[in-house]
Amino acid sequence: MTEFDSLDGALLIDKPAGPTSHDVVDIIRRNFGIKKVGHCGTLDPAATGLLIIVLGKATKLSEKLMADDKVYEGTMKFGATTSSYDADGDVTATAPVPPLTVDQLNEMAKEFVGDHLQTPPMVSAVKIGGVPLYKLARKGVEVERKQRLIHIYTYKFASYTEPVGVFRVACTKGTYVRSLAHDLGQKIGCGAHLSSLRRLVSGKFDVADSIPMEDACNLPKSELEKRVIPFLKLLAMANNPGE
Q1: pLDDT 10s digits, 4-59
Q2: Which of 50, 77, 123, 232 fits 207 for a cystine, CB–CB 3.0-4.6 Å?
Q3: 80 and 181 in contact (C-beta within 8 Å)?
Q4: Which residues are catalytic?
């Protein structure tokens, strides 16, 4: 029978803006001397919120946990299109923003709800011929990208103060929220980009139950163990996603 250590499981981290998801993995690995550490679902460096860190034997469950649906909240700025579809990219076009209301934005956002073919942005980790797209983008190379089938459950704006809208979206794995911002901007005709993003939910896990990365790193190992979702509980959750 397999024996599980107290650090075989998942740790829910509230990622700050700045570090990559891989940076968080490295920090946890080094801080606590854990050999096997992984994460479930990449967050862009500028994005914040829920990052599921898997430890020890639980790294085997990362693919299952990664497949879960996600909920995000964020802001998008209208009137400027960027190369990366978010605030980190270079501005490639600007245009006057027409008068907009929350109701108008929600009417247009409704058209994205349901099954949707989405083209990954050039500045992304998607690989073509083994090369990540962002490396090609840095060289000024743009290539044709294969569209992906995604599903948007809800896409709704809570407020709008020109030129920034605050929204929430629930979607399937692999959805590029910055592409949603870009596509809505193109639909309106003035362009738009994602100006901030926070992941609230991934599957059955909520950011409300997470611990800020800095706080986690300051915990003694004995306290960290208390924050870890044990392997067997994690396995049951991964095998019964709908329950």
Answers
A1: 788 899 999 999 999 989 999 999 999 999 999 999 888 888 899 999 999 999 99
A2: 50
A3: no
A4: 44
